[in-house]
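Tutorial, part two.
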Amino acid sequence: MADLIQAGRHSYLAKKYSRASALFTRAICICPCARGVKRDRCTCKNYEQVAAQGGSILREAMYTCHCDVGRTFSKCDDLYHIQALNSRAATYGALGKLDLAVRDAEWMLELAPHLPDGYLRLGNIARLQKNDEYAWKIYTAGIEANKETDVGSSPKLQQLYGARKPLNQRFFRQDPLCLPAEIVTQIFSYLELSRRFVCLRVCREWRRTLTSPIHCQLWRTMTICSSYYRRAPDIDDLKRIIPWAGDRGVREIRISLGTPIEFTFTQAMLTLLLKASPSLENLEVSYLRLLYLPSNEKIWKRLRYFSIKSCAESYHIAADRPGGFPHKFLENAASSLVHLHLSGIPQYWYNMMSSLPILPNLKILKIGDYSKHMVYPDDQWDGLPHPDAIPFPIFPLSLAFPRLEQLWIGPNLPYLDPAPGWMWREKAEDIWPHLKVLIFDPTIFIGQTSGAQGTYSTLWHLTRLTSLQHITLQLGSGDWPCMFSDNDDLLSDNDDLLSDNGDLLSDNDDLLSDNDDLLSDNDDLLFDNGDLLSDYDIARCSEFPNLHSFSSQTMCISPNGARALLSNGIKSKQLTSFDIVFPCEDYMEHASLRHLKGYDWLRGAPSIDTLSCYGIDLQSTLVKDGRLFLPRFLATFPNLRTLDIVTCDYPLHLGEEFVSLVIAIMRLTHLKTIYMASTSFAEYYHPQLRQVARDHGVRLRSGPRILQWPMPLLEK
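Running the prediction step on this input gives:
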């Protein structure tokens, strides 16, 4: 047999295909498995049909036979027999007789279903016939039939893997439940609760696997949202789900109720869900309306995060009543609660200090009010003072939440009520000694109204807390006076205000004669709030010793005020981020340039890695001069990697000026990321800008940088 096969191969290489075929046929006929008689192939098998139906090709090769061949002849894994059939199939393929080649390849499968040779030959022929899916299934069947064989020990098996590889991307389908349990849980966690129920109906195996203890994490997060298209889970559903979450129930619950669902999600369901989850860690509820959280249970000792969003109707509802604020629930979870998010403040928080829940371990607080139309403090709302118009007292929060580390005030909370100055003086060491992050973002335009006086005074005192590391003030308008200027800076600011016509006061006599007016102007600048100026020493007692970042998109801080704010952070090399806001109305041609030059003392600070430039006027000397003032200023910071650049509104024809400015910045600095916010987003797609960004390895991002919350803090 070996000699015949060798001779046939020589004829094949010489392209004498007919002679090669005859030699291979003689070799096949003298195999001992024929026992001296002619051996025919079985015609009962239909591999292509089995593959199309998703059946087992190996089983078809092993057991399907209704003729005499299976009873007369046994399987044959003789190496020469298989080689002869393989070579003859290749010869038929060279002659274009693919039907005969398929017959020999299938005969190889019939004789030796546990060898890779037949699968490889049949799959290759299927590819020649442009039947790639069938070829992939044949290759896969061969790999599964040889799964106990070491791949490195069989060259044919290696070829089988190699032949299947380019087809995997198109045809490889695997039951996701065969993946590692962690990946399965992650995949199904993206589905809403109602969709997970649908998955349980795929088959019994899916239901058994997805509800087994190994996938308990999948049911430890419960999200129930209002929807017009999907029914809400009923109480029987909850009774089935909760045991799937494993010992001690659900860990994270999100409930957002609206019109479509509010009458189907009942108080009994809410109570069942909470009481069956004593290890609850995160709870988010929105618009409970007629429902309430349990107030008599003290079982939630692991609740760390609680978020509640209320509707405007809840403002007048008493605490712990249906639709009211869950006062007792919070107090019962006080020992573990670390993060609190309130959207909608109950009425009694405005006027009853002693009614606040005491949360001694709370570290993160975001507090905002209902979304309502802007009103001023003297306006009325349904005969009662509008909540937007009532100043919210901040000082009582420091007593109720003494260990607070991060505080976000807003949205819809523009008016703040400062405590009397003596409180800040006498209790200075007790007012949030651990507060590291302060964010004020009311998202409502306040302006210099009477209600803004208390807000200004409150922020003045809060920003002087010595523990602060990160300060963000989004005031909604740029006409607020700078709260970080010293007396000299205030005098210089008044000089500018008193010389709007461009005629500066030129002699000391004029300055002294107008001193009374100057002081009264300072009173207006500081929004005199009774005892604020008398307590100015409180404001000066802090030198911002721990400041890491300061952010404000609207507050134009004078260079002298910025020096008072940042100097200690620069000296200690703690300051990493700062926002520069340019004058929003450049009445004088060089105002923006003069403002930037005032920051020369900041040049080259090695600790700064993030800068933001707001209110850049593309028609000012700062940009149009051609001497690249801003790019050269930014280039002095050796570790600057992130830049926010936001322009004033400008005519569309100045878009090229903006592009040129950003290109110059990229060429002179070592930036990694630039956030761009301009009048038109067309500049973001400018081809030259994007090419320069690629050349310098800079990522361009459209819009301003998103504020991270809660802010990551460095552990000392």
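The first strand starts at residue 221 and ends at 225. In part three we will examine how such features are distributed along the chain.
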